[in-house]
Amino acid sequence: MAKGMALTIGLNSVDPAHYGGWSGNLVACEEDAKDMAHIAKTKKFAVKTLFTKSATRKQVFAEIEKAAQTLKSGDIFAMSFSGHGGQVPDLNSDEVDKKDETMCLYDGELIDDELYGEFAKFAPGVRILVFSDSCHSGTNVKAAYYRGRAAAPRYRNMPLDVEMKTYLQNQDFYDRILKDPRLKAAQDAVKASILLISGCQDNQLSADGDSNGLFTGTLLAVWRNGKFKGDYKKFRNEIANLMPPEQSPNYYRAGVTDKKFEKQTPFTI
Q: Exposed end of the chain (fewer CB within 10 Å): N or C?
């Protein structure tokens, strides 16, 4: 019988000691993590949740590696992240836009190449499902709409000056990762099947809210406490249909394409 493990991560702030004095205060990220954990538990996943100060690079790596060592072909690993997204210079020339995207963990950024490096440790045939309610700086965005009402929300992005200050303050640390030749080919080394549904496109911003992020709140509305019927593509499309054009959820595949996985009802073990 297939097994499911889930890791839900929510950070309402980061450690200013690492991020150039910036704490990046948000409101709803921990609530997002709680709600995503609730969905996973109702679908019989074994769930680990990390909030703000516990969502360190070491702890996140440890939880992913634990899942990689446990899960076998046919099993599923679900991961959700709610917090700030950032970018760092692409030093191994694997990005068209010359930027590597990051998840801002409490004590440092998790670079996308590193995440693929961790996913490469999963056995062939494992399904990996990722939801990311974060954003990356790059485009000026008009006021978004939150649940149908005009608002001026907080955005889950690192300001450009903070991105640069954080990188320069910790340049030796990040450059060792960004220049690692093993990570350049990390995505190609993934033998599991990855499906990512993110809160926005790479050049857009994701809005925070009072109780959930815009993306997660809309996801919950579409999920309807498990009453949603359809596959992952329909799930993404119904979420996107309820969101403003300034924040359009992405649907992205990596690793080994698994059409059977994509046709399943979301969160199926």
A: N
